[in-house]
Amino acid sequence: MGRRVSLVSFVLVLFLFSSVVVDAFAERPSEGLGKWLQEAGVVTGFVRGGLKGQKDFNAVVTGMRFGFDLKPFTKKMFNFEPKGLLEIVYEPFINTITKPDANVEFGFPFFFKYAYPVTSKFYPFVEVGTGPYYMTLSTYEQSTQFNFISQGGAGISYFIRDDLSVNIEYRKRHVSNASIKEPNGGLDADVYIVGLSLYF
Fold this sequence. Notes:
The chain is α+β, with helices and mostly antiparallel strands. It is 16% helix and 52% strand. The chain has helices at residues 2-24, 71-78; strands at 39-49, 57-69, 85-90, 93-99, 103-107, 110-115, 122-135, 146-161, 164-176, 187-199.
């Protein structure tokens, strides 16, 4: 029963993300990359966590970001247009696991992100998201290597140009398999990220 509820919930979340993204495109520019994207960027950094009965878990982050403007959607549906940046972000990644053994992890999470302009150059932000995840590492905590990754974080973007920002962020992440199979103890880790984003 728990597995069925988790799978149905995941499908509903994907459907809602798809619907939101389609509506958000309505008021974007009619030509060029800005028709589909508000933000495109790269991220790197490192992950640090603990494992039961093994050495610490460390990984090097390598990912990309694709941000879609949600303000046209909130304006159309709720007559609300918040100050700053409101996005749904797709962030595929392939990370190199360095401890306890050489392995890889990859995932395809979506985030909701809000950034508020303290000045024209500094935009503190928060984001939260989830998505499918797979690792080649076997652990005592997880009976499956396919899991879901949930993350929440906060950071700051500094705009070195009107359309280009450097981003620094801390995230807390949790990896588990939504009770598909036991054991499902979960893997928690801290994530430290730096990135570069281009805005359209």
